[in-house]
Amino acid sequence: MKNSGQRCEQSGSCDLGDFIALLHDKENMTNSSLPQMTSAEAHRAEILENPLRTYLLGIIISICGNVLISISLNIQKYAHVRQAQRGSKPYYTSVMWWCGVVLMGVGELGNFAAYGFAPASLIAPLGSVSVIASAVISVVFLKETVRASDIVGGTLAITGTYVLVTFAPHTSTHITAHLVQYYAISWHFLLYLFIEVIIFCILLYLYKRKNVKHIVIVMLLVALLASLTVISVKAVSGMITESIKGQLQLIYPIFYVMFVIMVASCAFQIKFLNQAMKMFDATEVVPINFVFFTASAIVAGIVFYQEFEGLALLNIFMFLFGCLLSFLGVFLIARNRPKIKQQDRNFIAMDRIPGRRHTDKVQPEAKTPTYGSLAAKLMCNRAGQTDDS
Q: Which of 32, 317, 322, 376 has a Cα at 20 to 30 A from 247?
């Protein structure tokens, strides 16, 4: 075959067999002259040639992580309810509560890996999966009811998520240490960080000093921390991904700075989120957390990573429309949600009423409309003092 190919090349005229032999010889020469690609380079080339496969992998990992997070939040809420019914032991002594924390860690780890495969504005809206899963789990696990607004809201949330994923920016930048350093000292990010710190301090003052226990205050604190979490998580995940591909990024100090920010912001975020789960129902916390977290993640991706740069106007409009559908869906799920029944907590024995030693003398008329009002009043006072403490 080799001789036939050489004769064909020298004479300039050959038959079909000699021509095939010539092509085969040239292919062998090309393969022998080029160095063989390593497995990391081959994997990287495959990813570059198939970006949709990378996005699909990130979406699947994010969906699984959000389902685990939803399960963990409902487990923690159930642990709070059970501890309140059984006695005054702290919630962190419950094994079930720690199981919920572990599941949340696994789910967040899945989201961490997903940010390494796709932009933050593509992964963050998939948090609607946790809203839908939380509604389903709360019905089965916490014995809550299903309403027509839950079905409509779930449909809107799924539709909005589809629109978001379709029109989100599908260009993923290779996150390197030098790129993160350049983004971190840009003037628009420094201005954004300054405004965020001011707002966070004001909200923390209202929450701690003024004792404003509103769900919006608590969830805004979580969202502001989540903004830093998204920035640091994508930076750390991206640099680890680049290091695995062959470009070592772990030797730069910015990697460890982002790692510390990621750990600290996640810790405080879990703290405030757990306090919100203790004070409010899971079906209220999860949807509001989704809305605020998605908004903060999108803003962080736009300001820090400039993910919307060069995006078409139609894509931006449809992306915002998808946000609106998702937000409307989660608010329909959370609207007028029935409270979890806690019968054991609403009962106080008559012999334990504070300030009364002879409770057997307190006997209201059973036929009067004020029957039992004394016990109810004392119970409310007792509950109010406990909450204030």
A: 32
Judge if pTM exceeds 0.70.
no
Could you tell me the pLDDT band of residue 80, with boundaries at 50, 70 and 90?
A: confident
Give the amino acid at 227.
S
- DSSP structure string for 301-368: HHHTS-TTTT--HHHHHHHHHHHHHHHHHHHHHHTTPPPPP-GGGG---GGG-TT-S-GGG----TTS
User: Closest Cα partner for 295 from 208, 196, 206, 202?
Assistant: 196
Q: Tell me the CA distances in angstroms from 66 to 93, 274, 309, one per residue in order.
A: 25, 17, 28
pLDDT one-digit tens code per residue, 258-305: 999 999 998 999 889 888 888 887 667 877 887 888 889 889 888 998
Contact 117, 54 (CB under 8 A): yes
Q: CA 151 to CA 138: how far, in whole Å?
A: 14
Mean pLDDT on 112-119: 80
User: What is the DSSP annotation of 358-382?
Assistant: -GGG----TTSTTTTHHHHHHHHHH
Structure tokens at 205: 């003052």
